[in-house]
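pinned: reference chain
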Amino acid sequence: MRTLNSKPLIMFDTLAYAKKFISVGLTEAQVEAHAETLTALPTEQLTTKIDLAELDNSLTLRMIELETNLKSGLIEPEPSLKDTINDMGLRLEAKIENTKSETIKWVAAMLVAQSAIIAAMIKLI
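pinned: its structure tokens
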């Protein structure tokens, strides 16, 4: 959190706070005690919009850096991810090979069937 002279930069309108509670019947002493208590709360644990924006920027830059390093080969993906990708590639290759051989068998069977039909037609003529 950004600070100025070790004091958090949290905006708190104590006058508006006091007026609201005085309007509902609290005494000035009670309102002052409330306001003092609130301003004394540990604000270093509060997250501001600036904190979130800085974190977002930092994470975005880190993701871009990781993506660049992965694409350029400077870092390797985690072994489990690499193994999964390799397994998927091997399964895909096996499916392609199987499909290729099934297609060749089907085409060969069709050629034999067409040859038999043509031979039968020639005999009839």
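why pinned: Helices lie at 14-23, 28-40, 49-72, 79-124. The beta strands are 3-4, 7-8.
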